[in-house]
Amino acid sequence: MNFNLDSLFKKEKPVVSKPAIDIEPISPNDRRRGETYYNWGLRMCATVMGTSYVLSPFLQRVYLDIYNEQAKNVELQEQFRKNTQAQIDEHNNNIESLKSQIVNSTNKKSENKEEIDVLELQRSELKTRGKSINKDAKIKMILGIIILIPLTFYLFLFYSSTFYTGFIMDIKDVTNSTGVAMAMFNPQAFSGALVKGLTSFFLILSFPVVFLGLGFGLHFFSVQQSKSRFLKMSAILVVTFLFDCIIAYKIGKFLYDIEGMWKEQSDVYTFNMAISDINTWAVIFCGFIAYIIWGIVFDMAMSAYSKLDLNKEETKMIDNKIQRLKDENVRINEQIANYNKQITSLKNEISSLMAKLSNNVNININEIKKEMTNFYNGWITQMGVLGCNQQDQSMANATFQNILNTLVNNNTIK
Question: Torsion-angle region of residue 388: left (phi > 0), alpha (psi -120 to 50) or beta?
């Protein structure tokens, strides 16, 4: 037996594995490994020199590539089912919460209805019962009337006299010196006005009514519930005060002119002189303060009169409570309707999610739409580089929108 020593001691060369290399696609039109869809769109558009009619099959291919990739991804499909089931469970919990709120709202509505029935029964009993007089309100009303009668007479004389003295009476009618008291309560007011004519007479009779009307307006706005009532009341007080200021100025000027006539002084009565004239302030306070008191007493008497009948007052309170409860039930009905609407919407979403779970393959259409858009963006960008005209680019856009609507937007598998 012959031995080959060289063969015995010959060292074998180690086998060195070649590094793995990316296998290029068989077709140059296929997407390369690691190539983005945007770059793929750039490359394919350059390959076909921007020809728009071949864009449609490429977009369909993008759709199918991503569709198949997702369909074969077991982890993705399993995660999708878990996420879908979690959404279904969350919707079911929300439905149960909404049903609980409906039950609570329905119970509250029933409680309000029972309370309304009790209040309506109380209201019926009050209507059948005889009048029950509120003694405190009766006393306030009587005292108010006792104060109002002489106070009304006072205001009537005051504003009649001041209007006559300030606007109708002439200096030549004065035979001797006249003081501020005489000007505010002029005994010649009615007779003197009648001498000057029926118009003057009716003016001094109607002028006090203006102030009494303003006082009534003050009460009318005070009982309103609107937020603007304070603004209206303030406006009435300001108007009344300005009226009194004008009358006080006229009387102050009249008295100054009379005094100047006796003393033969020629200075003109100015606004600054009126401010420092005690007669001006005497007329303002004797009129305006009395007017404020009259308004307060009138409001007190009217408020007492409205509360004179205890049954009427209690009935009004009951009516307010009933209306408040009815309004609350209207709001509850609106809430229940909104809850039912939300439940219906959640049930529809659950049905859609259940349909997804029943599919063997679930696809993320939004991901497909994104990559199709990336491919098209690359394509349209390359068309601009190639100098394709606007008509070709518009045709490419129309093709993209048509394919997108056909494969993605109208696809029920999402």
Answer: beta
- Cα–Cα distance, 87 to 311 (Å, whole number): 60
Q: Are 113 and 332 in contact (CB under 8 A)?
A: no
User: Ramachandran region of residue 95, left (φ > 0), alpha (ψ -120 to 50) or beta?
Assistant: alpha
Q: What is the DSSP letter of 73?
A: -
Q: What is the DSSP string of 231-276?
A: HHHHHHHHHHHHHHHHHHHHHHHHHHHHHHHHHT--PPP-HHHHHT
- CA pair distance 64, 74, nearest whole angstrom: 17
Each residue's pLDDT tens digit, 199-257: 888 888 888 888 888 888 887 887 777 778 888 888 888 988 998 898 888 888 888 87
Nearest CA-CA partner of 84 in 371, 363, 410 = 363
Q: Which of 189, 156, 184 is nearest to 247 (CA)?
A: 184
What letters, b where the CB count within 10 A reaches 16 and e where it falls short, cover 128-162?
eeeeeebeebeebbeebeebbeebbebbbbbbbbb
Distance, in Å, from the CA atom of 287 to the CA atom of 282, rounded to the nearest integer, reads 8
